């Protein structure tokens, strides 16, 4: 057991080194400072012990996409100073639970969710940071929330306004997942445009959450400020589940 834990730590440390080098190289190529880009370790389907290892290795931002998994994990790691990012599709009835541990919700994609999060955040005396998730899949019909979630780009300004005006929550910026099977650069450029419109109205909403293990270079090149990295740090989730 002790050996296993040491091995796991060595694997994660090596992965983290590789990811940091990839981000540094991408920043250099784009003429950006690595200080402009935060790495969020997405720990879904990996145990709390991995979160602990990541914290020991200097990570402060962790991400989860399902409340059932995130809530107990965050509780188990309650003694560690971490920023929890909720990045998955969110049901209104989970708002209270998520507000209990999350510092940032990346996946706000409809008005009713804004109201629920704001009410729960106020009740908890918190100031939850909210990003508008943008649907960048050109194949999904207008107004239809695709399987990966996200608001239609045309609806983002109204949603941003609702978040900015709601008491108890703060508008942090925008987030997207690049559609599968297409060049992520086109999607991230679109996100950048949407982000610029939001930022022109709300100058403090500077976050652009984009980029995962497979497309982080494209995201950095196209202006991402937050990367959500799972597999490249913790390995294949399918091998661990069960
Ligand atoms: C799982 C997940 C990630 C991390 O993806 P990897 O490809 O494993 O790096 C990022 N964003 C969201 C919304 C996710 O659900």
UniProtKB/TrEMBL annotation:
Cofactors, names only: pyridoxal 5'-phosphate
Boundaries of every Alanine racemase N-terminal domain copy: 16-237
InterPro entries: Ala_racemase_N, PLP-binding_barrel, PyrdxlP_homeostasis
Top-level taxon of the source organism: Bacteria
Pfam families in alphabetical order: Ala_racemase_N
Keywords, sorted A to Z: Pyridoxal phosphate
Residues where N6-(pyridoxal phosphate)lysine is found: 44
Keyword Cytoplasm: no
Gene Ontology molecular function terms on file: pyridoxal phosphate binding
CDD domains found in the cross-reference section: PLPDE_III_YBL036c_like (cd00635)
Function: Pyridoxal 5'-phosphate (PLP)-binding protein, which is involved in PLP homeostasis.
Family, per entry: Belongs to the pyridoxal phosphate-binding protein YggS/PROSC family.
PANTHER family: PROLINE SYNTHETASE CO-TRANSCRIBED BACTERIAL HOMOLOG PROTEIN, PYRIDOXAL PHOSPHATE HOMEOSTASIS PROTEIN
Entry protein name: Pyridoxal phosphate homeostasis protein
